[in-house]
Write a structure and sequence with these properties.
Strand content: 15-25%
Low-confidence stretches: none
Largest sheet: 3 strands, antiparallel
Distance between the termini: 62 Å
Mean pLDDT: 87
Structural class: alpha+beta
Length: 74
């Protein structure tokens, strides 16, 4: 609502359909309805990619962040 007050488009548009969408970048079925981001909606797809990247960064495996090779220095 705040974005619309300033004449800005929404950050993401999630659509709803009774049938499985044919042109969906991402889709999920929940309680008999399909929720999806249309494949032609580049703004919403970009935000979904950003959210996915941020989630992957914060949920990384702590053990894999340790050094793989240690070289002793005298």
């Amino acid at each position: 609502a705040l974005l619309q007050a300033y004449g800005l488009p929404p950050l993401i548009v999630v659509r709803r359909s009774a049938a499985q969408p044919q042109r969906a970048a991402v889709a999920a079925e929940h309680r008999g309805a399909w929720f999806y981001v249309d494949d032609t909606d580049t703004r919403s797809k970009a935000l979904m990619m950003l959210l996915g990247s941020l989630y992957a960064l914060q949920s990384g495996d702590v053990e894999s962040m340790s050094p793989l090779l240690t070289i002793p220095v005298n």
